[in-house]
Every structure is written in C-alpha cells, then in structure tokens.
Amino acid sequence: MRYAAKTRHLFRDVGGLRLHYRETGVPSSTAVLLLHGFPASSHSFREVLPVLGERFYVVAPDLPGFGFSDAPQPDEYEYTYERLSRAIEALVDSLGVRRYVLYVTDYSTPVGYLMALRHPDRILGLVVQNGNTHEAGLGDIWDTARQYWAEPTAENRAALPDWLTFDGTRDQYLSGLSPELQVLQPRETWHLDWERLTRPGNVEAHFQLFVDYQHHVARFPEIAAYHREHQPPCLVLWGRHDVYFDIAEVLAYHQDMETLEAHLYDGGHLFLETHAAEVAAQLVTFTGNVLDAAR
C-alpha cells in the first residue's frame, strides 16, 4: 500500500474547537467526506479509509462532542446540527477542499444536508447509509420522541427510551441482529463510544442533539426540494435489520432522485462494523464514476 493511502490521525483548530479527523490519500480540492453517526466517531471508517485512499483524498472528522474532537460543556456550546455543520464546513474549508462526495449516516445526516442546502454546488455525489430524510423512515419507535418534541415535559421525557446509557450505546450496534450477526460485532466499538460519551456534560449534549433532531424532520420538505432541483448522484446503503430507521426510507429516495443506486445488507444500524469491505468497494466504484462525470 502506498504511504499516502495509509490513514493519518490529525487535529486542527477551527472556530475555537480542536477537531480530530482522519485522512487518507493525496490532499486535493476534491475529496470524499465521511461523516459518522451516533454514538460513534470517525473510528467507524477505519477499514474503509485506506481502501479509498488508494484512489481519492478522503477526510473523516469526529463531530464536535464525538470521538476525540472537543466536547464543550452544553452551557458553553449550542449543540445543534446547524452548529455542528458549521464546524465541519470550517474544517473542510481549512483543508482546501472545495467539492466532495458526501457520506452521511444517522446523526450526520442533518449535518451533511445542512451543508448541502447551503452549498449545493459543492456536492458531487451523495451517499446515505441508514440516514433519514423522509417521514417513511420514522416508524412507531419515534412516537415517544414526537410526543416529547411537541410537549417537552418531565413526564414525556421519562417515557423516552433510555438510550444514553452503556446498554443503550451497545444496543446501537446489536439491536435487531440475530445471534449469528451479533458475534461479528467487535465489542471495543461501544466501549470506546461510551468512554467518549461519558466526558463531563456529554450525555446532556447528546440529549440536546436529540431534541434538535425535530428541526431536521421539519426540513424534510426543503430536502425533498433540494433532491428534485439539484439531483446529486445518490447511493443508498442500508442495514436491513435497523430498528431505528425503517427500511421504507430506502424506497422514499426513489421518489425524487433521477440517479439512484441502493444496496441492502444483512446488518443493523451500524453495519460498517460487519460490512466495511463491501461498503468500501461500493464507494470506490461510485466515487470513481462521479468524479469521471464531473471532469
């Protein structure tokens, strides 16, 4: 493997925050931007990065409050997807990246789409992995969230699933999986996530992001309009056992996208842990085609 394709683990100060990010490939104004979901970090892409780095410049940051990036106290930093998206945009700008293939999943979906809505000309292609931009993906499991968003009372908060715990963190990886698939999940993933989540004030910060997710849901019509107007080449990758986002979300992209490729995998919400090789192969092909078309 070329040295340039090996993963580099770096920090950069942007906008008053010290952000941790991983990169591979030769730095360029064109990149693949990999954004992780909850409760994970850029660690999710550890097996994908060197494969992509053989052909492309790739950047995988830790969102503020995640991984090894700064996690300011919630009373000192507004944990909203708007704020996170501005931080990642500042990082991308500081690296000299002007256009990119954007990979989003879970909580990074609102982050990435805010960036796309602000600068649609910068998005060369869109990869969505178990990320939601339609009502179709929000099944009954979201009923208590909707109730809390509508009426944020102590009683409605108590009715929410108890996911901001060690068990809840582990369940992000294991829920919905058969015993045969559960044994493929490396345990260090949720242990690392929980160690980072338990930094002072961090659990409350993540609850604030959960509350702000309602504003992402409210933007669904705006996102649909973005899809229809700009038609970015789109690749949807989905773990079919995801208990948090319904598989109906995959077909929902079909409504607005003229260029769409979708792949279902026998995995769960965070299926990169079990299908990194398959995803890397799809990303190499998709990104190569997108960049060829953009030249």
Describe this structure as you would to a colleague.
- The protein is an alpha/beta fold.
- Helix content is 41%, strand content 17%.
- The chain has twelve helices and eight strands.
- The chain has helices at 49-53, 81-94, 108-118, 143-150, 154-158, 166-174, 179-182, 188-197, 202-218, 220-230, 248-252, 272-294; strands at residues 8-14, 17-24, 30-34, 58-61, 99-104, 123-129, 234-239, 260-265.
- Strands 1-2-4-3-5-6-7-8 form an eight-stranded mixed sheet, sandwiched between helices.
- The chain is globular and about 55 Å long.
- The chain starts with 7 loop residues before the first strand and ends with a helix.
- The relative contact order is 0.16.
- The mean pLDDT is 96.
Residue fraction in strands: 15-25%
- The side-by-side strand order for the widest beta sheet comes to 1-2-4-3-5-6-7-8
Helical segment count: 12
Question: What letter string, H or E per element, gives the SSE order?
Answer: EEEHEHEHEHHHHHHHEHEH
Total DSSP E strands: 8
Task: Give a nutshell description of this structure.
The chain is an alpha/beta fold and 295 residues long. Helix content is 41%, strand content 17%. The protein is globular and about 55 Å long.
Layout of helices and strands, plus pairs?
Blueprint lengths: L7 E7 L2 E8 L5 E5 L14 H5 L4 E4 L19 H14 L4 E6 L3 H11 L4 E7 L13 H8 L3 H5 L7 H9 L4 H4 L5 H10 L4 H17 L1 H11 L3 E6 L8 H5 L7 E6 L6 H23 L1
Parallel strand pairs: 3-4, 3-5, 5-6, 6-7, 7-8
Antiparallel strand pairs: 1-2, 2-4
Supply database-style keywords.
295 residues; alpha/beta; 8-stranded mixed β-sheet; 12 helices; 41% helix; globular
